[in-house]
Backbone:
């Protein structure tokens, strides 16, 4: 098992960073749960290095350098924690580098033109997380299982993009492809002025439909997982998908209001998933 203090540090980081993930993954057996905490914490550091560099202990370049020389890395609880998880599960480093390459895109590209660009971004920053976690949760994941994990990550990233439209706009970012906006007659002028009209709702629904396709693929092999791992993935997907329902209840006001799934609502979803 991971050292108690290291495990606690990673647990706190996950609990503070993502209520949905924390509530979903806490039902795993201890070793798997701690491994997920470690992976989440490293991804959080990568994300913070880009979005909140003034508060981050490392730059993205420093994180990559330390990860490349993981055996020698020190100075933060994440390095011994990562050594433990990589060695315990004999993990491939490739998805972690992919994650960093996706976050690096935020330096170079603030607005997206095509659906293909958006899908590539979603794969890098979130599909990669699916690749990281599947070997923790599944005893013998084949390529189809790995691809379903990637799809689940991409679905969740679409939800993130919808939920965070207002916050991202303040940072000068627009992840919604111009290609989709033009399809429904929603202009860049409308976007800059935070217009919520029928074309905007159609744009968001288009993204929701894509996310739902990826959610379906993401859960296609759920029956092949151990029971607790399967419950965890279903919970994570359900909690995230519920954010969309809150967006709809808020009448698609995503510029000024962040959709939040309350703990009470999560508990109801948990009961629905486990009542049988």
Residues:
């Amino acid at each position: 098992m991971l050292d108690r203090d290291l495990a606690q540090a990673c647990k706190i980081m996950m609990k503070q960073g993502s209520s949905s993930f924390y509530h979903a993954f806490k039902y795993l057996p201890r070793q798997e749960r701690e491994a997920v905490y470690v992976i989440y914490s490293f991804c959080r550091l990568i994300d913070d290095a880009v979005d909140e560099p003034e508060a981050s202990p490392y730059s993205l370049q420093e994180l990559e350098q330390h990860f490349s020389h993981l055996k020698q890395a020190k100075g933060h609880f994440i390095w011994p924690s990562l050594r433990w998880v990589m060695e315990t599960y004999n993990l491939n480093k490739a998805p972690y580098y992919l994650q960093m390459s996706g976050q690096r895109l935020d330096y170079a590209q603030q607005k997206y033109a095509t659906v293909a660009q958006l899908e590539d971004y979603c794969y890098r920053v979130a599909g990669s997380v699916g690749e990281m976690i599947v070997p923790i949760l599944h005893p013998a994941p084949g390529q189809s299982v790995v691809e379903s994990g990637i799809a689940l990550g991409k679905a969740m990233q679409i939800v993130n993009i919808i939920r965070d439209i207002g916050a991202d706009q303040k940072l000068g970012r627009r992840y919604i492809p111009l290609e989709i906006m033009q399809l429904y007659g929603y202009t860049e002028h409308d976007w800059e002025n935070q217009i919520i009209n029928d074309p905007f709702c159609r744009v968001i629904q288009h993204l929701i439909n894509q996310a739902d396709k990826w959610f379906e693929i993401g859960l296609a092999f759920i029956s092949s997982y151990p029971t607790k791992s399967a419950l965890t993935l279903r919970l994570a997907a359900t909690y995230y998908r519920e954010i969309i329902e809150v967006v709809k209840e808020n009448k698609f006001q995503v510029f000024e209001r962040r959709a939040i799934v309350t703990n009470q609502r999560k508990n109801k979803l948990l009961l629905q998933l486990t009542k049988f």
